[in-house]
Amino acid sequence: MERRNFFNSVSSGALFLVFAATSAFAPIAARAADKVEAIRQAGVVTVGTEAAYEPFEFIEDGKITGYSKQILDAVVADLGVDLNQLDLPWQGILPGVLAKKFDFVATSVSINAERAQKYAYTRPIGSVQTIVLVRSDNDDIHSAADLAGKVVATQLASAEQPVVEAYNVELKSETGTGFADLKLFQAFPETYVAVGSGQVDAALIGSNGAAALMRKQPDKFKIVGEVGEPRYLAWVTHPDDTDLRDYLNDVIGELADSGKLTEWQQEWFGFTMDLPSEGYLPEGAL
After folding, report:
1. 199-226 tens-digit pLDDT
2. Helix 67-79 / helix 260-269 crossing angle, nearest 10 deg
3. Is the Cα dihedral 98, 51, 121, 204 positive or negative?
4. pLDDT band for position 32 (50/70/90)?
5. How far apart are CA 43 and CA 174, in angstroms?
6. Res. 22: pLDDT tops 50
7. Single pTM value for the model
8. Which residue pairs, CB below 8 angstroms and at least 24 apart, start in 181-184?
9. Cα-flanking dihedrals φ and ψ of residue 23, to 5°?
10. pLDDT, tens only, 115-168
11. CA dist 205 to 39, 164, 177, 226, 277, Å?
12. 237-to-46, 109, 207, 227 alpha-carbon distances in Å
């Protein structure tokens, strides 16, 4: 009896401690699994998109479409909910997810160290590479190395400009000859015109812009090479919504493993992308 009372006493105490510990951690565990379940219970997922980055996400026939939209449709189908996709200016996209104006950002956001400390990136859905664009009848330039002694164009103050200038230095170091000239235009479409008219020999532009151009004018231009390192693009969640970020990573991973991502890349870009499943976040990332 005394042993039973003692056991009961110990058990009750232990149970109290277990209960207390469980109670202390339960809210944390519940919060960690809350977001995906809350979306499913609401029956709708609301996402923020800047539909102005063809062919990732853009407007066609009055609707948002593109490679990223195709991934989003797969996510929405897996969730089993309706989609409320907001087309917003870029300036409102990242502040909007921090303010919880929508559930996550479904637009292509470059991964960089500063953002990675504020927002929870998914694994990359795509990449942008600086590529070499020439006229389809150009038989002189077969790779980036052939740009030595050529007149090259890119957009002034673009993300490509420092990449192009660094490659010019590299080319001079390796071959003794850099570009004959680097012409900087106000907008990328002006570089396409310059290549088409023969004003310049080649344009160094982002692969997404090149893909859109090749879809519209497949017979006028060709891509013959690339320079620099790829810049990865991903979606973004609120830093508290780690379960949602993990869920999105799982879906993107399944699409990659099944070959769907490469199939859609070929469809929208005309080439495939080598996307890492780990090691893509800078140090200190959430």
Report:
1. 999 999 999 889 889 888 889 999 999 9
2. 150
3. negative
4. very low
5. 58
6. no
7. 0.77
8. 181/151, 181/152, 182/152, 182/153, 182/154, 183/151, 183/152, 183/153, 184/153, 184/154, 184/155, 184/156
9. -65, -35
10. 999 999 999 999 999 999 999 999 999 999 999 999 999 989 887 899 999 999
11. 39, 9, 21, 9, 26
12. 12, 11, 25, 31
d(C-alpha 28, C-alpha 215), whole Å: 48
pLDDT confidence tier of residue 31, bands split at 50, 70 and 90: very low
Q: Which two tokens stand for residue 47?
A: 């996402």
Return the structure tokens found at 67. 């490679």
139 token code pair:
């038989």
Cβ atoms of residues 121 and 238 within 8 Å: no
Is the predicted pLDDT of residue 5 greater than 80, yes or no? Answer: no
Q: For the residues of 90-153, what is the DSSP string, one character each?
A: HHHHHHHHHTTSSSEEEEEEE--HHHHTTSEE-S-SEEEEEEEEEETT--S-SSGGGGTT-EEE
What strand order describes the sheet that includes 63-65? 52-53, 57-60, 63-65
Tokens of 219: 């017979």
* pLDDT tops 90 at residue 13: no
For 133, phi and psi rounded to 5 degrees? -110, 130
Cα three-residue angle 263-266-272, rounded to 5 degrees: 95
Q: Per this entry, what is the length of the chain?
A: 286
